[in-house]
Amino acid sequence: MEYKDTLLMPKTEFPMRGNLPNKEPEWQAKWEEMDLYDEIQRKNADKPTFILHDGPPYANGELHMGHAMNKVIKDMIVRQKSMSGFRSPYVPGWDTHGLPIEQALANKGVKRKEMTVAEFRKLCAEYAYKQVDIQRAGFKRLGVTGEWANPYITLQPEYEAEQVKSFLAKWRKKVISIKERSQCIGPRLVNRP
Hints:
This protein is mainly α.
């Protein structure tokens, strides 16, 4: 007699396996078709607002466990607030500037010194936008809801313009000062009482 024949198992019509790798994409496609995120935002439009300011990940490579844990926990907070009667929009974003992207390209064999600054920046931008698309797909696959069609990306001219406006406003209030280029690399904070 087989061991499995000695067990008294309940009879059920449910399949013994969840088959999640096949079912999850179907669920996500259904949620997109339903426009579920926007529907929730419309439902809570007149309620108090809760905003989770999410520090953006660098767009410099594949998602890893840290990305997954970070986004899923934040998604749980935003959903809980939404279900508790708050208008809780979530606008995802990506940091597409700086050394992490340059280093990712260097690791792929790009020789920065063998090209012009403009060529290298263009290559960095192309790489960053490609990584944004890859990471966005991964976050959506994790079930994170948000305004995926309209994220903020630090490389976008509109975002850069807002940074310049913010810098200018601080300069006008004398919170920061600018010295001659020969005296320092960048702006310094002014110590004020």
